[in-house]
Amino acid sequence: MCDIRGxxxxxxxxxxxxxxxxxxxxxxxxxxxxxxxxxxxRGASAAQTMAGLFAAKxxxxxxxxxxxxxxxxxxxxxxxxxxxxxxxxxGKAAExxxxxxxxxxxxxxxxxxxxxxxx
Length: 119
Description:
Strand 2 and strand 3 form a beta hairpin. The mean pLDDT is 95. The protein is built from 3 helices and 5 strands; from the N terminus they run βαααββββ. The strands form 2 sheets. A 3-stranded antiparallel β-sheet has the order 1-5-4. Strands 2-3 form a two-stranded antiparallel sheet. Helices cover 32% and strands 32% of the residues.
């Protein structure tokens, strides 16, 4: 049986991420180099992808109950070959252990993500 330790939900406006991409600023405060490369490789859907990854990281922080005391780059969002999102904890975040399940969706100019942290 699994023990749910926490849940988190976040919304992110895709237009907000488009503004960051258009500014040409580095995304390294929020994303690992691999995540930034993935975002920029998405072409016309880069802002949508970025909003989904950002919402997923925020949802994980909420599930862990830490707020921004953990660097966002310590939460790495990737995808399986079938497209299922996966959250991996590194650095300070890895100290929390457990398993994370996440889901990301996009609709009407918004990205949403839900995270469940289990023992």
